[in-house]
Amino acid sequence: MRVPLSWLAEYVDLAPGTTPEDVHAALVKVGFEEEDIHTSDVTGPLVVGQVLEFTPEEQSNGKTIRWCQVQVGDGDVRGIVCGASNFEVGDKVVVSLPGAVLPGGFEIAARKTYGHVSDGMMASFKELGLGDDHSGIIRLNTLGIDPEVGTDAVALLGLDDSAVEINVTPDRGYAFSIRGVAREYSHSTGATFRDPAAHLPATGGAHLIERFTTEYAVEIDNSQPIRGRVGVNVFVTRVVSGIDATRPTPQWMTTRLRLAGIRPISLAVDITNYVMLELGQPIHGYDLDQLRGEMVVRRAKAGEKLTTLDGVERPLNTEDLLITDDRGPIGLAGVMGGSETELSSATTNVLVEAANFDPVSIARTARRHKLPSEASKRFERGVDPEVAAVAAGRVVQLLVDLAGGTAENHGSHHTPVSHAATAIELPATFIRDLIGYDYTTEQITSALAEVGCAVATSPNGYSVTPPTWRPDLTDKWTLAEEVARIHGFDLIPTTLPVAPPGRGYTTAQKVRRRVSDALAAAGLTETLSYPFFDEATNNLFGSATGEAVPQMRLANALDASQGWMRTSILPGLMQTAARNRSRGLTNPAIFELGRVFRPESGKKYGHEMFPGAVRPSDEQLAAVAAGLPPQPRYLAAVFAGEAVVKQPGTKSAEFDYTHAFDAVRTIALGAGVDIEIRQGAHANFHPGRCAELIASEHVIGYAGEIHPSVAEEFNLPRRVAALEVDLDALCALAGKPVEADAVPVMPAATQDLSLVVSADIPAEAVRAAVIAGAGELLEDIRLVDVYAGDGVPAGQRSLTFALRFRVSDRTLTQAEATEAKQAGVAAASAAFGATIRE
Questions:
Q1: Same domain, residue pair 312 and 397
Q2: Neighbour-count burial for 144-180, b at 16+ CB within 10 Å, e otherwise
Q3: In-domain check, residue 502
Q4: pLDDT tens readout for residues 206-259
Q5: Residue 428 sits in which domain range?
Q6: The whole model's pTM is what?
């Protein structure tokens, strides 16, 4: 919300010399976030000038300029070159003289151009930072003002004003108005607040009317509540006849609108926007002569369409709340009007509508049609139902004063839903127990009264009735927050909370933390990637075969081409690796823990929509959970580039599958689970450089090198190591943390063993057979070499293992070690026909 300071000062006293920074600081004290400060950024001489004469001159580049003589003061006539052609002799214009600086740091100086010395510049609205209109220079006479030549244009155009911008949280919609912000500034500083809704002057009977001489025909159809909520709470109409829609909007109004971030359009429309900013009540004006018959407010019917003011024909949903007449829809209630009844330069009679609509209904309509508006932004956060009639009267008043209209005693005022606030019981000690500060009775009642609440004593404490402009005050907790906010959060003492007793982390949480800590300690960096992909990318690692897998599609994807929930973490990690390499971080070793989405084939997911603004029941929450697909947690890692960089005496070495295997061992150690790395196959891993990860005889993931063609598709080197493991399955198998073995005191006996086996037998299977045969004396066994070639029969390969034998109570002899080794050889021979390599 942008708040011009001159406008704010009309409704709350600003001390002399108050700066935008001061206003920001005051509003921050009462819970708002400061966003920005908006000023004109115009300095130096900016004056009113009058065009005395001009000569059109065609240029060699095909452009026609005007050589103008412009009077900027008594006897001061300047020659100015101007490329605009929208002005005439005698027009009064805005002239920036040499020494002026316009927005963007554009300095004005006398300079030679097109064969003349241009001694200044005639300015447009855009050049002065007053809007986007760059169609021509400002003609003051068309704006309804006739200042003296030489008048300071900075003050004339309101360029000496500034605006503060604040972030308004969703629960404080009343602050989307000058009225609301002025009240909050008063809370913060104690300055006197003048409520514009109570002090707006009545002109020619154009203010609030209790009873109309004639009733304008309006029907409110609340017979189709959506999720228990009706659409209309208040509906007010007023009629103004005989306006001159061609009159220019006064400069003071356009300046304030621009400074508040609203583009001026036409007088009648500008007035409705002005009142919306002033009071927070969205207003819509209809060309009364274009309306047909009775106005009806109802839900849309199936198949209905509406062309809105932006020229787009929109198919309507049966939940949309509409304004209609005899021909059908003429407006999306609370969002945007229709093109058939919009105000134009030919409009003479205006129907003013000020209503209060259901916030949830308006929010859903705005999102459904992707049509956010200033009106919907306010309605969905809650608008004061009591201000509708006042706002309508204010619009009528301005149409009378500025557009020359006549206020008719003709209209309607419907209140189909009572908006009387319900009293809230506030126990006497509740605020103290919740906030931690012992406020006095006077502090509590004064703070609540200051925000507009009616406070009465009750047997247990206080009975508090919130004001109509504070729909966010719904319970004793929100009342307690208001008391703390008004008196200042700095009063609340700082007390460290005592952790309640509990069981601590679950086993799964502990395992996930140990695993991520172990990978980070091993030099990998944890990342977080985007969880949405296209179907083809999702199929890459969704299954080992590379076939299409069931996927969950988003109903409202931000990017239609990336509308499916991920089935694997690897694509996101590979994109992250490629992005880092493109930015000079050429050797990423990264990992991620997160959920993947694995729907079951043929099963339908989803649940019914529940009413908004109401906590779902336990049964409804259970239905939500049942309607979700399986979402297991996975862990993936990617290594790309050089594991060892080139340096003196050392050659560079690329990441390869061994680094992925090392990471798997790190994961296994952190989780306290034995993971077997066994030769396997995956459609998008390199054939021959891929392993299945086995835990408790189940495949829980894959590790190795990505297929070179897949790596290149992700703009990565042809050699990329990667792994992915089902972390939930790992957590389910996890036991206690791995404890360090006692340091052995007896010497070990070491031997090597080379076995020749068929090339299609996994080395891990041979290793397991040797371990089973060798028995308890074998302390450790590692595969150290794989060889195929001379001396080894075709179709076979040699596997060399390093063996270490030891017992804890004595020195083991080589004979005992050899005997255990031979037992391992016998087991491998029986299982796979293994022979000792000669």
A1: yes
A2: ebebebbbebbebbbbebbbbbbebeebbbbbbbbbb
A3: no
A4: 456 666 888 899 999 988 888 777 889 999 999 999 999 999 888 889 889 988
A5: 424-491
A6: 0.64
